[in-house]
Amino acid sequence: MSDATGERHLNRLAGEPSPYLQQHRHNPVDWYPWGPEALEKAKREDKPILLSIGYSTCHWCHVMAHECFEDEEVAAVMNRLFVNIKVDREERPDLDQIYQSAHNLLTGRAGGWPLTVFLAPDQAPFFAGTYFPKAPRYNLPGFVGLMEQIAGVYRTRRGDIEAQNREVLAALKETRQPAESRADDEVLRRATADLARAFDKAHGGFSRAPKFPRPGELEWLVREAWNGDEAARHMLLFTLEKMVRGGLFDQLGGGFFRYSVDERWQIPHFEKMLYDNGPLLALCADAWALSGNALFARAAELTVEWLAREMISPEGGFYAALDADSEGHEGRFYVWTPEQARAVLGDEYEEAAQAFALDAPANFEGSHWHLQLAGAATEARLESARQKLFAARERRARPHRDEKILTGWNALTIRGLAHAGRLMLRDDWIGMALRAADFMRANLWRDGRLYASHARGEARLNGYLDDYTFLLDALLELMQAHYRPEDMEWAREIADALLDRFEDGEAGGFYFTSHDHEALILRTRNAADQATPSGAGVAAMSLARLGRVLDEPRYARAADRTLAYHGAELAAMPVAFTSLLAALAEKRRDPGLLVVRGPERELQTWKALAARKPPQVLMFFLPDALTGLPAGLDKPASGAWLCREGRCLPPAQSPGEIEL
User: Fold this and answer.
1) DSSP per-residue codes, 579-633
2) At a CB cut-off of 8 Å and minimum separation 6, what does 478 contact?
3) From CA 539, how far away is CA 657, in angstroms rounded?
4) Is residue 280, in this structure, part of any structural domain at all?
5) Dist. CA 264–CA 260, nearest whole Å
6) What's the pLDDT at 179?
7) Exposed (0-12), middle (13-18) or buried (19+): which is 108, by Cβ within 10 Å?
């Protein structure tokens, strides 16, 4: 829409730094960002709120935007009947958690994005859905007719809506008294058995289509594999190999897509999210350390190359995501026809076609091929073909990149880089992690507080539980790769802020939002792992670990209280709480703390231990010159001390003497 001067219309989202909100700045919808202006307008005019939650790389968000929010007729109805609020779910996971839960209560179905929720002026939800088309289709009502109906119900059945709202709010706010923990060694054994029952023996993974990577479950299997469980080892390596060889992994450019729409890991939903790739990078390194299979090492290398090439900001932070779509079509950037590949490869085509399954039937929309690593080819020929196809692909129109820098997602990536770097002895990967950590300390940490997002040069939004816990966990991993005293001091400050701002001082555990956060209709606390780890589980793990390193019982007590608060949930369904499960495993049996002191030039030999020992063992390699170390790391020069259950063994003088 343009005004009389020919300039495109701008709505209130034009000044927002979120790339997702910027995508909607030219909509004819009278959008508001979430905030006092919109909420007060709804109360003043007694108008219901139309809340739309999405994110910038979401395919169906784009579809609904094109069909509805860019349409003058639809926008006119929205503007007449509602106060319209747009929310970026990646910046406001607090709101997303509340209204996804409300959607589940109101519809009995899982939600997703775009999330479309109609609220009373007091923010209570009374109708919810996800994607709606302009006109009826897919067994869904048309959006215009739906809005007219909802507005009519709001005007004529206010009492019914208020009664329903009271019930919904009561259900959302329902709390339980923390039960005495029933989580014990039997829970740990049952978790692996539950995964074995769900395991897809043909294709790997633990579900039918759609198949998500679910790194928390795979990380649990890493632990069990190092403990000698051969079934866990097989499930882990088989699943990761299927993922890395299949279409979930970008065979040309590296990095993992969001999920597979089929059970064979062949065709993904083509968006690439930062939060998937940090944990999966670490898992590739773990799989390589367990198996020695070069396939996993190559996947790790290509993933880091992708991060360095496409996802890193000039200052060192990591961008959030790449879109699934380009030129209006999902996957167009990534898929091929045999004719396109033959034109690029010439005489190399036949061998490459076998290697990348171009000689098999089309696997994408009936006429295109999404590459997977299917057949044999010499490593040199395969790499030559990959590079040529990659160079040709780089000339295509690229998917949109969401360039906001999210604290929690960056922390997951720092941890992944540091973990993979220390296992595979890649100082350059560790250097990327250090630089990202420095960016975050300089730009997202101020006056003892973390901010959630950095966009257009501005740090904004109060940090969430995940931001604090993921970063604390990342710093513990980073210090094992390259110890810096300032990182230890920062870790202590983050842990203190975590306890001060988020802990439930009475019942134990942690809220998702801080004590001084904006007041919403619900203050959530959830320990189940989702696409990212549970903040509560990571808190229990990282606080317990930091407590051992610093000899600080306050952190250990907070970890224990978190496990106790969620103990009944964990005992009831352990594989839904793998982050808490890992914390419980370390509480039941201290995996150990290894401190190696020595001249800088000799530490490299010791660092090779990282790939030969269980990853849950904390390992710090500290030059003799370091002073002022915390209690758990303050050991005499030149030796290796293995400490467990509060006592240390006599110092070892060579890596071969270390038994874990």
Assistant:
1) HHHHHHHHHHS---EEEEEE-HHHHHHHHGGGGTS-TTSEEEEEETT--S--GGG
2) 414, 415, 418, 430, 433, 434, 437, 487
3) 33
4) yes
5) 8
6) 52
7) exposed
Give me the helices (H) in 398-524, please. Answer: 407-423, 427-443, 465-481, 485-502
Token pair recorded at residue 399: 């998917």
What SS3 state is found at 84? Answer: strand
Cβ burial, residue 190 (10 Å; 0-12/13-18/19+): middle
| Range list of H helices, 126-229 | 143-156, 158-173, 185-198, 215-226
Phi and psi torsions of 622, nearest 5°: -120, 120
User: Rounded distance, CA 312 to CA 186, Å?
Assistant: 43
Question: What are the φ and ψ backbone dihedral angles of 491, each rounded to 5 degrees?
Answer: -60, -40
Burial of 138 (0-12, 13-18, 19+ CB in 10 A): exposed
Flag residues of the chain having pLDDT under 70.
1-7, 175-183, 377
Q: What is the per-residue burial (b if ≥16 Cβ within 10 Å, else e) of 604-622?
A: eebbebbbebebbbbbbbb
355 Ramachandran zone, left/alpha/beta (phi>0; psi -120 to 50)? alpha
- Alpha-carbon gap, residue 515 to 530, rounded angstroms: 23
Same domain, 316 and 354: no
Q: What are 88-122's pLDDT values in tens digits?
A: 999 999 999 999 999 999 999 999 999 999 999 99
For residue 296, give the nearest of 424, 426, 417 by alpha carbon: 424
Contact 374, 355 (CB under 8 A): yes
Last residue of a domain, one of 395, 419, 446: 395
The answer to whether residues 266 and 165 belong to one domain is no
Which one-letter DSSP state was computed for residue 90? T
Based on the structure, what is the number of domains in the chain? 4
Burial class (CB in 10 A: 0-12, 13-18, 19+), 116: buried
Distance CA 531, CA 71 (A): 33
Q: How far is CA 494 from the centre of its chain?
A: 20
Q: What is the pLDDT of residue 181?
A: 53
> For residue 321, which amino acid is it?
A
SS3 147: helix
Q: Among the residues of 82-124, which ranges form H helices?
A: 93-107
**4 belongs to a structural domain:** no
Distance CA 28, CA 71 (A): 7
How far is it, in rounded angstroms, from Cα 228 to Cα 536?
A: 28
The domain boundary, picked from 561, 588, 615, lies at 588
The rounded distance, in Å, linking the Cα atoms of 505 and 476 is 25
Other residues' Cβ atoms within 10 Å of the Cβ of residue 541: 29
Contact 277, 215 (CB under 8 A): no
> What pLDDT does residue 245 have?
97
pTM of the model: 0.96
- Residues 613 and 543 both lie in one domain: no
* Structure tokens belonging to residue 418: 């540091």
- Domain CATH for 209: 1.50.10.10
* Measured CA distances, 242 to 79, 133, 235, 260, 427 (Å): 49, 36, 11, 11, 29
DSSP state of 657: G
- Residue 210, C-beta contacts closer than 8 angstroms, at least 6 positions apart: 259, 260, 261, 262, 269
Q: Residues 43-71, buried b or exposed e (16+ Cβ, 10 A)?
A: eeeebbbbbbbbbbbbbebbebbebbbbb
Rounded CA-CA distance 206/214 in Å is: 9
Judge contact between 450 and 497, C-beta under 8 A.
yes
